Amino acid sequence: MNEQSQSIKVPFFVVIFVALAFTGGYVFGQSPVAPFNVFPSRALSATDQEAFDPLFEVWNILEGRYLRQPLDETILVEGAINGMLETLEDEHTRYLSPEAQSIANERIDGSFQGIGAVVESTEDGSVIIVSPIEGSPAEAAGLRTGDILREADGVDLTGMDISAAAALVRGPAGTAVNLLIERGEESFIVEIIRDVIMLESVRGEIVEGNIIHLRISQFGSTTAEDMTRILGELMEQNPEGLIIDVRSNPGGLLDAVVSMSDEFLDEGLVLLQNFGPDRDIEEHVTTAEGIALDIPIVVLIDEGSASASEVLAGAIQDRERGVLMGQTSFGKGTVQNWIPLSNGGGFRVTIAEWLTPENNSIDKNGLTPDIFIPLPDLDEEFEDTQLQAAIDYLQGEEVISIPPEPVEEGE
């Protein structure tokens, strides 16, 4: 792993190896190599040293006087780090233990073992599924975006650190885990057999009407290269339209999504990064050298579309390059650096907020589709109504937007 990597996925996504607290991300998850050292190391000033003196005083007293010796210094250090980060009240700024960092690296590399779901922790301590990974045991078991993981093999996950919760769910391929799932007013237990999860991030095919259906499930280290190859092959068939499907895509690498945007957008902004007061705003742009600059586009989004997938969808919407269809997206509008630490662990720190080309923030709000299409029912007679609506639209048929019912205050 490089010294720093930059991610835009996802709430603090954890792929429950299900894998990490990714995120995620994001995911991922969600981390290209930073082009510069955002946080150069520096010596402590006299003021800083004075501020840290009480910490070392407590450490020395524990080492010399605490009743139950010996102390586990690793636990003390990690506890101090986690306590410091919790005061920021930023769920995306997290310490990763060496084990969690290793899991994150495996996910970026494209495979891992577990149930295959991207999760995050909410403000009330719940572990919620952002999206099951396509073809995973979690998807086969019927887990859905928005499901809450309450227990793993009888252990309560609510309020637990997301990395610790992930550790209880992940495990070797072929082993089972029993999960207590909360879905609305319903709670039930499901047994899932863990497996090796291969992350095929891009798939493409020609569907009815000579339309490309390009499915992007995450933005990993090979996604941009794979997509360019697949899209190029499909564009040779002179398609009439293009559906970019980022439903249940938790995000991923910033470099990947910017590179991929080049294929669809002419020269101009993809996103802005605001690094905070008295710091520069960084522009990410396309170059007008893509292979799909003129073809009509529909982007499919849903509540599991987060971070990098929102960057792509937001750029296409703001620049009026295509139509967004589906449901309001997740709403992950901050950027994280992943920084390896000397103990083999990692530090995921929020360094910026990203904005759409029209300077809009989607954090906590998500992207609003131009055309709302209800989520398809997940049952044995599943019909992908959203995909069909996108096909109909690109064939010139009328598609009616069906916005969700407004939520009454207090609900």
Describe the structure.
The protein is α+β, with helices and mostly antiparallel strands and 411 residues long. It has a domain of 173 residues: 2-enoyl-CoA Hydratase, Chain A, domain 1, CATH 3.90.226. It contains 9 helices and 20 strands. Strands 2, 4, 5, 6, 7, 8, 9 and 10 form an 8-stranded antiparallel sheet that branches. A hairpin with a 2-residue loop joins β8 and β9. α6 packs parallel to α7 and α7 runs parallel beside α8. It starts with a strand and ends in a 17-residue tail after the last helix. The N terminus is likely disordered.
Write the layout of secondary structure elements.
Layout: E1 5-7, E2 14-17, H1 46-65, H2 73-86, E3 94-96, H3 98-109, E4 111-121, E5 127-132, H4 137-140, E6 148-152, E7 155-156, H5 162-169, E8 176-183, E9 186-193, E10 195-198, E11 202-207, E12 211-216, H6 223-235, E13 241-245, H7 254-261, E14 268-274, E15 281-286, E16 297-301, H8 308-318, E17 323-326, E18 334-340, E19 346-355, E20 371-372, H9 385-394
Parallel strand pairs: 12-13, 13-16, 16-17, 17-20
Antiparallel strand pairs: 1-18, 2-4, 3-19, 4-5, 4-10, 5-6, 6-7, 6-8, 8-9, 11-12, 14-15, 14-19, 18-19
Helix pairs in contact: 6-7, 7-8
Brief sketch in words of this structure:
The chain is α+β, with helices and mostly antiparallel strands and about 400 residues long.
